[in-house]
Specification:
By secondary structure, the chain is mainly β. It is built from no helices and 31 strands. 0% of the residues lie in helices and 55% in strands.
Amino acid sequence: MQGGLNGKTYETQAPVTGSVALGERLVSAHGDGCLRLFRGGELERAVSAHSGVILDIARVDDQSVVTGGEDGRCLYVDVDGGIKSITDFDRRWVDCVACHKGAGYFACSAGKEVRLVDFRGNQSQAISHPSTVSDLAFDSKGERLAVTHYGGVTIWRLADLDEEPLRLEWTGSHLAVSWSPDDQYLVTAMQENALHGWRLRDQLHMAMSGYSSKPRSLAWVGDKPHLATSGADQLIFWPFDAPEGPMGQTPLSINYRGEAQVACVNAMDGLPMVFAGLEDGTVILAEPEEAPRALLLRGPTGSEVTTLVATHDLSHFLVGDDRGGVFVAPLKAS
C-alpha cells in the first residue's frame, strides 16, 4: 500500500476488471476472483468469490452485487461476504451481468445464451441470440432488456418473453450498450472505432465516428443530456438535446494531456460531471460546457485505468488499473 495525492494505492497484483458503489462503500472486482470492499478510503474486506477472473460486476442495492466469472458461475455477493449462486453455466464464461431491483431480475450471459433469473431464484428463463452476447442493459423502468451481439441489438420485453423481440440491426460487432436516461435512445460502442445509436420511437440511425480507438466506455451526464465516451486522446461529449440526438451537432471535447487515450469514463451521481481515466493512469474530472475545463485528480502512473467510481455521497472515489492497482481517495475536504 502506498500513500499519495491524499489517497492510498493498494497493489493487489490482480487486474481490476470493474467496480461499483454501494452507498458509502466502493467495491472492485479482480482477475484473481476476489471482490475488495473499501469504506472511508480503507480496505474493509476481501471476498474470494470466483475461481478465476471476475468478468463483470453490477450493483444490486447498497448491500450487494451480482458477478459473473470465467468459472461459469453468476453469483450474488453481499457486503458481509455472503455468497449465493444465481445460476451456473457449467464452466462457460459468464461475460455479462446486469440487475434491475425494481423489475426483480438478474440477467447474465454465456456465449449466445442469456438467462433471466428472478430475485427469489425460483424462475429462470433462457433466451438465445444469433451470436455471442457482448453486453446487457435494462432500461430505467426495468421493462426491457437490451442485448448486444454481432449485427446489432435485440430488445426483449420482460412482461412477455414469448413475444417477438425488437431487433435493431447494423452491420458489425457491438461491444457495449447504454440507454439514454429517458429511454428514448440506445447507443452501442462498436469494434470499428465508432458508436452507433437509434432513436427508439422510429429506429432512426445515428452514426458517431472519428475515434482513434474503440470507445468501449460510455456515461450519460447532465439534464440535456450528453454522452461521454472513451476512445480518443480527448474526452468526448455527444449532445442529445436535439430531436435527432447528436446528428448534425459537433461534440464537445476536452484534451487534458498530450496523446494519452481516454480509456474509461463514469458519471458522478447527481452532478453534471464525468470522471475520465487515461491509458497512462491520469484521472480527470470534467463537465460538458461550451468552454470545458478539466480538474486533475491524479497524474500519470504508467498503468491504464480500467474502472472508476465514486460513492453515492461523493465522499470518496476509486480508480482501478490493468496491473491491479486500486487508488482510493477523498473527493471532499475533511
